[in-house]
Amino acid sequence: xxxxxxxxxxxxxxxxxxxxxxxxxxxxxxxxxxxxxxxxxxxxxxxxxxxxxxxxxxxxxxxxxxxxxxxxxxxxxxxxxxxxxxxxxxxxxxxxxxxxxxxxxxxxxxxxxxxxxxxxxxxxxxxxxxxxxxxxxxxxxxxxxxxxxx
Length: 150
Description:
By secondary structure, this protein is α/β, with parallel strands linked by helices. The protein has helices at residues 3-6, 21-34, 41-54, 110-123, 127-135, 139-146, and strands at 12-13, 63-64, 67-69, 77-87, 97-105. It has a single domain, classed as Mannitol-specific EII, Chain A. Strands 1, 2, 3, 4 and 5 form a five-stranded mixed sheet that branches.
């Protein structure tokens, strides 16, 4: 399973309206709710924030990958939020996060969860791809970039 297997344009926020970490996370979770992926956004928010309390999922170079396992979801799901201005995420390099990949998975799907985290880590090693994603103006463009289309 790859990111493109589970990502749909209705769970991509371009641009994010929120300007802080908790708001951005809730904004992406609300996309899950609107698209029918989850029923209880508060349960998912609590799981994500509990994971964040263990250590920020802000990586480096403008990337954040908040994630959690929760019974509030039946299968692994991912959402993307793009904030051209960046959001303070407690990143390793101190830079604001412009690309936020939110992942939720049921507790029994550790393998797919780790595989998806690894795929995002690989994708985001390519600065040109990240720059294209940050410059994307809509969800269709985000999907096209991830598919490798020009």
